[in-house]
Design goal:
The protein has six helices and eight strands. With 180 residues, the chain is of the alpha+beta class. A four-stranded antiparallel beta sheet has the order 2-1-3-8, with helices on one face. Helix 1 packs across helix 3. The protein starts with a helix and ends with a strand. Pfam families: AMMECR1.
Length: 180
């Protein structure tokens, strides 16, 4: 079952003003709580939308639906996806494990605890938070320090905020589904 293809179908239906009803047999397989993010990229790998549900608060089929619609139509960095763009974009879905807070005595320990290619991160301080998926540092060629710094930036905080003991760092893993 390719979740990226289901995400595309959800968006295709929405562009027609319709609600895609995920078939019951698929819903049954996706009826456990999990976070999910949908990433939409152009064929030349430029980001076109990426949003999702980081925490396991909905059944996966519902997180998938929400994330697909948000990535296509609500990502504030981009205008809503148009029907004419569908042939020129590809969908990717990342299913997230529940985020786990990293406990450290010294923030420099984060550099050892975060595994590039395995972990995604959530940076939190006060009302601010930013999430980066596990595939991002690989795509960007970042090390753990850069990953943390860009996580801070994504949260709207200074790039060195991860060095502040008041900043919380969470890690999660992701299973990635891509279109063929």
């Amino acid at each position: 079952m390719n979740l990226a293809k289901i995400a595309r179908k959800i968006v295709e239906y929405a562009l027609e003003g319709k609600d895609y009803e995920i078939p019951d047999e698929i819903k049954e397989k996706l009826n456990y709580k999990a976070g999910a993010f949908t990433t939409i990229k152009t064929l030349d790998n430029q980001l076109r939308g990426c949003m999702g549900i980081p925490y396991p608060i909905y059944p996966l089929w519902q997180s998938l639906k929400y994330s697909a619609l948000m990535a296509a139509f609500e990502d504030p960095r981009f205008p809503p996806l148009q029907k004419e763009e569908l042939d020129n974009v590809k969908f990717e879905v990342t299913v997230l494990t529940p985020p786990r807070k990293l406990i450290v005595n010294n923030p420099l320990e984060y550099l050892e605890k975060i595994k590039i290619g395995k972990h995604g991160i959530i940076i939190k301080r006060g009302p601010y938070s930013g999430l980066l998926l596990p595939q991002v540092p690989i795509e960007e060629g970042w090390d753990a320090k850069e990953f943390l710094s860009y996580g801070c930036l994504k949260a709207g905080l200074p790039m060195d905020c991860w060095l502040d003991p008041k900043t919380e760092v969470y890690v999660f893993e992701g299973q990635i589904f891509e279109e063929d």
